[in-house]
Amino acid sequence: MAILDRRTIKRHNQAVTQWLVQWRGSSPDDATWEFAFDLQKRFPGFDIAAQPWGQGSTEGGSFDTHN
């Protein structure tokens, strides 16, 4: 997966972060907004700091979500 963008929204009266996720094998047009907290729990080894914001991932920058 690659993180294409991020945004902050209000959820239950609190500011929360969402990431625009391009899932492995899909096009950027099919990217979905996901809650950052949920993705961090689901993929604890994912390094958000390594993501090139707004550019998708490079060959080595994607994360294997099949584990």
UniProtKB/TrEMBL annotation:
It comes from the Eukaryota. Residues 2-44 form the Chromo domain. Coiled coil: none annotated. InterPro entries: Chromo-like_dom_sf, Chromo_domain. Transmembrane segments: none annotated. This is Chromo domain-containing protein. It comes from Corchorus olitorius.
